[in-house]
Specification:
The protein is of the alpha/beta class and about 280 residues long. It is built from 11 helices and 12 strands. Strands 2-1-3-5-6-4 form a 6-stranded mixed beta sheet, sandwiched between helices. It is globular and about 60 Å long. The structure holds NADP nicotinamide-adenine-dinucleotide phosphate (NAP).
């Protein structure tokens, strides 16, 4: 058996993981907090086997990203109530030699809106996508008091969200037609992500001035979707803000103390080349 004796070890697990910005953000947080710990990026393609190895090797906490959030959810010893509603976890903590799971993605969304004091209670939200990130968006938008509609390429997956969360659903054609009726749009598909399909998931006719448009993609910081929205006079929110605040919530759970958000933001901006983005 191999175990660390002094420095605590943490990691983000997923695949592909090479370009993750989490290590730079989390290692900065450890340094500012004076915690003797290191945070790695680990390519993991078989969590069924690898989660136990990581536990036995002395990892204290893990961030979980695409495509493992759902499978890891089904493997952990216990989860909080929100995670069981979402059916996915993005954070693991070692407690009594077992993994406990939580989902902080939805917290990242709520904090992004909260930091900017965006008044969204009673507003109409359109969520594009029906994967794990969309489920967190539905939960967060409802939590903030929005009236939620989901649209997805595969309609059956949107139907599942309607059943699970009681939201409205539209197919892509209807969403294209009615998109500009909404106050807030969440783009939760990977379209526009570096290395993935380019372009816009729905046409720019859905945008109108004063709308709030959030893209979950953070690489690039300003996606084509956000650039078009900004051209139409919308307020834009990059996935980089969500990344920061979901990470801050992970630090808070692991160490039971406030995260050094300002320092984490500063390194993220530098690492992402986001100097021109008005980060909040
Ligand atoms: P997922 O579970 O695989 O879901 C992907 C969604 O995107 C599905 O609804 C899928 O539609 C849709 N989609 C994929 N390719 C498409 C295409 N070519 N045209 C139309 N729709 C398409 O993935 P996820 O976990 O939800 O993650 C989605 C994105 O959110 C990723 O880019 C991830 O990095 C990002 N994310 C960011 C943060 C952050 O902190 N900023 C946190 C979590 C996730 P179908 O159902 O039709 O396949």
């Amino acid at each position: 058996m191999i175990r660390p004796v002094r420095t605590q070890i943490f990691a983000v697990i997923g695949t592909p993981i090479k370009h993750s910005l989490s290590p730079v953000m989390m290692n900065k947080a450890f340094k500012v907090l004076g915690i003797d710990a290191v945070y790695l990026a680990l390519e993991v393609d078989n969590p069924q086997k690898d989660l136990q190895i990581l536990l036995d090797s002395g990892f204290q906490g893990l961030s979980v990203t695409i495509p493992h959030k759902e499978v890891v959810y089904s493997m952990v010893e216990s989860v909080d109530d929100v995670s069981s509603k979402l059916g996915a976890v993005n954070t693991l903590k070692k407690v009594a030699n077992a993994w406990r799971g939580r989902n902080t993605d939805w917290i990242g969304i709520v904090r992004t809106f909260g930091r900017r004091n965006i008044p969204v209670n009673g507003k109409k939200a359109l969520i594009i996508g029906a994967g794990g990130a969309a489920r967190a968006a539905v939960y967060a938008a409802k939590y903030m008091g929005m009236d939620v509609t989901v649209t997805n390429r595969t309609y059956e997956r949107a139907v599942k969200l309607k059943e699970d969360f009681g939201c409205n659903i539209l197919n892509f054609e209807e969403a294209t037609e009615k998109g500009s009726d909404f106050d807030v749009i969440f783009q939760t598909t990977p379209i526009g992500m570096s290395g993935y399909k380019k372009g816009l998931v729905l046409p720019p006719t859905i945008f109108r001035p004063q709308m709030v448009v959030m893209d979950f993609v953070y690489n690039p910081v300003i996606t084509d979707f956000l650039a078009e929205a900004r051209n139409e006079g919308c307020m834009i929110l990059s996935g980089l803000e969500m990344l920061l605040y979901q990470g801050a919530a992970q630090i808070e759970w692991w160490f039971n103390r406030p995260a050094p958000v300002a320092a984490m933001r500063e390194v993220l901006i530098k690492a992402a080349g986001a100097e021109d983005y008005e980060f909040c």
